[in-house]
Amino acid sequence: GEVKDVSDGYARNYLIPQGLARLGTEEAVARVKKVEQAKEKEEQSQKDQSASISKALKGKTFEIKSKTAEGGKKLYAAINADDVKKVLEADNIDIGSAKIVFEKPIKNIGKHNAEIDFGNNIMQKIKLNILAE
Fold first, then answer.
1. pTM (2 d.p.)
2. Which among 31, 56, 88, 108 is most buried, taking Cβ atoms within 10 Å?
3. What DSSP assignment string belongs to 103-120?
4. Three-class secondary structure of residue 64 per DSSP
5. CA 31/CA 25 separation, integer angstroms
6. Closest Cα to residue 23, out of 111, 32, 89?
7. CA distances from 36 to 16, 70, 94 (A)
8. Burial (CB count within 10 angstroms: exposed 0-12, middle 13-18, buried 19+), residue 133
């Protein structure tokens, strides 16, 4: 919640009866501040964790083996974010809810780049080496 200053009539006649607000007693204000502090602490903890994972990923190359179509150059199915997540998890790297972004769809074997967006302006590029299975 938030602490807002509104007119007495607006609070008494509309906000409080509708259940949209409560009186700003000292206890209620202290409770809101405590919740905000806990939320900020949690966000900072997540940001620090994302930064440390990002640092651990810097400059690393990951190999992904995938089935190829006849001829051996084109993949049977494009590499997606789940494939990359599985490879990272196999290497004991948990990126949580971070998004994996590709420069372009990966449909051929060879070297490709991807970027992991952890949020909070923390992004890390990784290299992928796609091999035929």
1. 0.68
2. 88
3. SS-EEESEEEEEEEEEET
4. strand
5. 10
6. 32
7. 22, 58, 27
8. exposed
Q: Look at residue 122 and give its three-state secondary structure.
A: strand
SS3 content of the chain, % helix, strand, coil (to 5): 40, 30, 30
Pairing of strands 106-108, 122-132: unpaired
Distance CA 96, CA 76 (A): 28
Residue 76 amino acid letter = Y
Contact of 97 with 121, CB cutoff 8 Å: no
B/e letters for 80-95, b = 16+ CB within 10 Å, e = fewer, are eeebbbebbeeeebeb
